[in-house]
Design goal:
Rossmann fold; seven-stranded mixed sheet; four-stranded mixed sheet; 7 helices; 208 residues; alpha/beta; 25% helix
Length: 208
């Protein structure tokens, strides 16, 4: 879910993006964010790549009309293979992480955490190579603690990414998660455009 000020910043990016537009959503949940973005790209036939690790949410994507090779089940991770997944059904359709939750930082029903798996996992670079993604106008990331893996093992893809909107806070919601400052430090040369309560927006000036 995005807030109005976050949507306003993203809309500006969408409106000035040149065709062919490519948006990649890691942690797509039920496709709600992609749905409202589509409304601001009429008649432009954008490419949307959706990745979702929670099986319940992934199945919801199909029911919302999202399907095909650009809709991928699995998690962004530090390697290619399989991994465990921590899921929680207390928030909407549910959410989860490949990392164990730091429960004191997550205000959900703690009894609903359940370790499942294995699920498919892959690096961000491997995903982009597999789907032949040669550029990304907006990378929209909500992967609950795996952001550092996306950055560390997605350097080739990030060099061809114009804007990054990513969940980032100043504490660790999941084991081994990076804080906001740590994530920004992993992106030298990127411009930090805006800080929101739960996310940050960055620009890659080397690829505009």
């Amino acid at each position: 879910m995005t807030f109005p000020e976050e949507r306003a910043a993203i809309i500006k990016i969408l409106q000035k993006s040149k065709d062919p537009v490519c948006l990649v959503n890691l942690g797509a949940q039920d496709g709600g964010d992609v749905a409202w973005m589509c409304a601001f790209l009429p008649n432009r036939n954008p490419r949307f790549v959706l990745v979702e690790a929670d099986k319940v949410n992934f199945d919801l994507l199909s029911s919302q009309g999202f399907s095909g090779p650009d809709v991928v089940y699995g998690a962004i991770a530090a390697y290619n293979g399989t991994c465990d997944f921590w899921e929680n059904r207390d928030c909407g359709g549910g959410f989860g992480s490949i990392y164990e939750p730091n429960r004191e930082h997550l205000s959900v029903d703690q009894e609903q955490w359940r370790k499942t798996g294995p699920i498919p996992c892959f690096t961000f670079d491997a995903l982009c190579e597999r789907l032949k993604i040669d550029h990304i106008d907006l990378l929209f990331v909500d992967i609950h603690g795996a952001e550092k893996d996306m950055i560390r093992f997605g350097q080739n893809a990030l060099r061809r990414t114009r804007y990054l909107f990513v969940e980032a806070v100043d504490y660790r919601m999941y084991a081994n998660a990076a804080t906001r400052d740590e994530l920004v430090a992993m992106l030298p040369g990127w411009n930090l455009l805006q800080i929101f309560p739960w996310n940050v927006l960055l620009e890659n000036p080397a690829f505009q």
